[in-house]
Design brief:
Radius of gyration: 18 Å
Helix content: 25-40%
Number of helices: 7
Shape: globular
Order of helices and strands: EEEHEEHEHHHEHEHEE
Strand order of the largest sheet: 6-7-8-3-9-10
Bound molecules: adenosine-5'-diphosphate
Number of strands: 10
Structural class: alpha/beta
Strand content: 25-35%
Length: about 230
């Protein structure tokens, strides 16, 4: 089934008298279970598009259907609710709470979801186990390697069982060996049926995805099946 459907979405920023067309009539469909990489030079609109797809922002015009809901025109609060339910975020800088353990970091989205402490910890533990870090549950971020921190962040993204995992430069702060091990993990998540959308500058990282979309000047320059998927495992 279809999980994302945007129809001619545009985003216009006004900076004083200057008008910036960050996205120009973008129509893109993504099905459940796809693994897509967004590429493109700086300023091409990747963050703007990811913010809209992730319900952090709304388009200036056009429609965005997420999991059969029209989310083009929601209020801040409505967007936040959809975001907590539908989207798992992974960031370049991990964005973990420095004083909280892995378990508490992973359990955090479940507080917003209203689960009790026992259920939160059970689910967070299962998510940590799924990224290979069951034995790091009581460690704090500064007691973990970069790769382990990103695994904790991925567990946090997964814990709500989101419709989509949105990863913004997920390997941007990691050395290449660790980057490839994180990409192996994404590959596993893809094999389990997760829908993954990632932004990356790096060609070798993008080639783990099964579809590569290139943006330029707010337009889709190309949208192709990746014929050279990096096989792992
Ligand atoms: P990318 O992620 O590919 O680097 P962005 O989506 O961040 O591109 O930016 C696309 C265009 O929109 C750029 O010209 C950028 O300067 C502009 N832009 C992005 N965010 C804002 C904002 N909040 N206000 C004004 N202009 C913005
Ligand atoms: P580091 O920065 O310490 O190299 P990694 O991200 O490579 O961290 O690995 C973190 C933990 O996950 C390690 O305990 C490692 O054994 C384990 N691990 C590495 N690759 C995988 C994988 N593909 N699937 C599951 N666990 C993995």
């Amino acid at each position: 089934g279809r999980i994302i459907e945007t129809t001619e979405i545009s985003k216009v920023y006004k900076m004083g008298s200057e008008i910036i067309n960050a996205l120009v009539s973008i129509s893109i469909n993504i099905d459940k279970g796809e693994y897509v990489a967004f590429m493109g030079p700086s300023g091409s609109g990747k963050s703007t598009l990811m913010n809209i797809i992730g319900c952090l922002d709304t388009p200036s015009s056009g429609t965005y259907i997420l999991n059969n809901n029209d989310v083009s025109d929601l209020t801040e609060n409505e967007l936040a609710e959809i975001r907590n339910k539908e989207i798992g975020f992974v960031f370049q800088t991990f964005n973990l709470l420095p004083r909280a353990t892995s378990l508490d970091n992973v359990a955090l989205p479940l507080i917003y979801a209203g689960l009790n402490k026992y259920d939160r910890e059970e689910k967070a533990m299962a998510a940590l186990a799924s990224v290979g870090l069951a034995d790091r549950a009581s460690h704090k971020p500064n007691e973990l390697s970069g790769g382990q921190r990103q695994r904790v962040a991925i567990a946090r993204a997964l814990v709500n069982d989101p419709s989509i995992i949105l990863a913004d430069e997920p390997t941007g702060n990691l050395d290449s060996k660790t980057s490839y091990s994180i990409m192996d993990l994404f590959q596993e998540l893809h094999d389990k049926g997760n829908t993954i959308i990632m932004v990356t500058h790096e060609d070798d990282i993008a080639h783990y995805a099964h579809r590569i979309v290139r943006l330029r000047d707010g337009l889709i320059e190309s949208d192709e099946i990746n014929e050279n998927v990096i096989a792992t495992g």
